[in-house]
Amino acid sequence: MAIATLLALILLFKRLEAGPVPSPASDRPCVNFMLPVPATAQNAEYDIIHVNDNINATAYAVDLDTWSFNATSRVLRNITVSDTFDISVQLCVPPNGIKKQNLFIATHGGLFDKRYWDPAINPSEYSFVDAALAGGYSILTYDRLGTGSSDKPDAYTIVQAPLQLEILRSITNMARSGELLKHTAGNADSAGTTVSATSANTFKGSDVSLDKIIHVGHSFGSVLTTAFLATYGNLSDAAVITGYILNEHFAEMRKATFGLEYAPQNNMTLFGDRSSGYMVDGTLGGFQTVFFSTQADATTGIGGFDTEVLDYAFSIRQTITTSEFLPPPVNLGAAPQFEGPLQFMLAEFDYPICRGDCNLHFDPATFQKLYPKAKDIDIYTQQGNGHALTMHRKANLGYKATLDWLDRNGF
Ligand SMILES: *[C@@H]1O[C@H](CO)[C@@H](O)[C@H](O)[C@H]1NC(C)=O
Ligand SMILES: *[C@@H]1O[C@H](CO)[C@@H](O)[C@H](O)[C@H]1NC(C)=O
Ligand SMILES: *[C@@H]1O[C@H](CO)[C@@H](O)[C@H](O)[C@H]1NC(C)=O
Ligand SMILES: *[C@@H]1O[C@H](CO)[C@@H](O)[C@H](O)[C@H]1NC(C)=O
Ligand SMILES: *[C@@H]1O[C@H](CO)[C@@H](O)[C@H](O)[C@H]1NC(C)=O
After folding, report:
1. Residue ranges of the AB hydrolase-1 domain (predicted)?
2. In the chain, fewer beta carbons within 10 Å around the N or the C end?
3. Structurally, how many domains does the chain consist of?
4. Distance 49 CA to ligand 1 centre (A)
5. pLDDT, tens only, 183-229
6. Could you tell me the distance, in angstroms and rounded to a whole number, from the CA of residue 67 to the centre of ligand 2?
7. For the chain, percent helix, then strand, then coil, each to nearest 5?
8. What is the CATH number for 365?
9. Quick one: which ligand is closest to 46's CA?
C-alpha cells in the first residue's frame, strides 16, 4: 500500500514537472452513472469445464486449445436471455467541442474494463478519452457486462458474446434516441456537481444531440464491433477496429498462454464478487505476454512501455468468463449495410492477433468485399506497440491518426 502511494506521488510529481496537466480528471466534462440497459439475445449452454479453482482454469484453457475441440458440438441447448442489466458508463461531452454531436462508443476488450481507454497515468500520452475530448468529440466508455462496476451475472449462460452485442446495440439506440442523456440527471459530474433533472445544461454540454455514432473497439471489443457492423451496420456512422484484424497468423496464440486463474482465488480483494467461471490473467508475466511489446519500432523508436504502466495495467486487470472465451458465435462476416468510413488500427508487435508481427500485406480489396459500401477503409499500424495499444509509449500518435482520418471523412 505504502509503495503504491509512493508510486502515485512520484507519478503526480512527474506530471507536475512536465508542466500544466492538460486535463485533470476533475475538470473534465464527464459524468459517471449506472445505465439500465435492456437486451435480449440467443445464448447457448455449453459442455465445458466449470472453473471454481486455478486447477480447472488451466484445464479449461487446455481443453479449448486442443486441436479436436469443437465449440459447435459442445452446445447443449440454445437459450434466450432477456433482461435489463446495470451497465457502468462514463459519458463525456465537451461543452465547447466543435464536434461534440459526434459520439464515440468505445467497447474495451477482454481482461480490462473501461479504464483501458482512459489510463490514469500520464493521460495526455495514454488516455484516448482525453484525446477525443481535446479533438472536440463526445465519448462514452462502459464496463462490459461482467467487468468493473457493471452487473456480473452467470458466467456460463449469461455473459456471452451474443448478449454483449445486444447490449452494444441497446446503448447505441439509447444514444441515438436521446434517452442516454436523460439518464445523466441526478448523477454527479466529475467536477462533483450534481446534474439536475430540470436544468438541461447542468451537465456541461448535455443540451447537444448526439447524432453521429463512431464505434470503436479493442480486441474482444473489436470482435463485438465487427459483429455489430455485420448485424446492425446501419446503426453505425463510422468504426475504428483496434487490436483485431483477420490475417494468416490470427489466433495462433494459445489460450493457455494467458495463464488464466480463477478470479477469486487470484485475488479476493479485487475479485471477491465474481462467481464460478470468472477468470483473470493470473500473473504479471502472463499479462505482459499478451498485452505488451517490449521493443520499440526499430526506425521510429516509438513504442515499448514503461514498467509503471505495465504495473498500472495489471492493477486494473479484469475478468473474462468461460463462455466469452469460446469462439464467438456472432456474425463476423460481411457488413453490407455499413456505409461509413472504417479504420483498422493495428499494433505493430501484436502477439495475440499477428503472433508478434503485424507487418503483413493486408489487401484493401479483401476488406472492400466485406464492407462493400464502406468509405475510406484505412489500415494504420501504430509502431512499436503491443496488443494493449493505449498502454504503449506515444499511444497518442495513434489517436492523432484516428482523429485526422475522421476529420478527413467529415466527422
Ligand atoms: C473441475 O472440473 C470438473 C469437470 O468439469 C468438475 O467435475 C469439477 O467439479 C470441477 N472442480 C472445480 C473445483 O471447479
Ligand atoms: C463440429 O461439430 C459440428 C456439430 O457436431 C459439425 O457439424 C462440424 O462439422 C464439426 N466441425 C469440425 C471442424 O469438425
Ligand atoms: C442452436 O441454434 C442454432 C441456430 O442459431 C442451430 O444451428 C443449432 O442447431 C441449435 N443448437 C441446439 C443444440 O439446439
Ligand atoms: C436499419 O435497417 C433495418 C432493416 O435491416 C431497419 O428495420 C431499420 O429501421 C434501419 N435503421 C436505421 C436507423 O436506418
Ligand atoms: C490483491 O490486490 C490488492 C489491490 O491491488 C493488493 O493490495 C493485494 O496485495 C493483492 N493480494 C494478493 C494476495 O495478491
Report:
1. 107-268
2. N
3. 1
4. 6
5. 887 777 776 776 654 443 446 556 778 989 999 999 999 999 999 99
6. 13
7. 35, 20, 45
8. 3.40.50.1820
9. 3
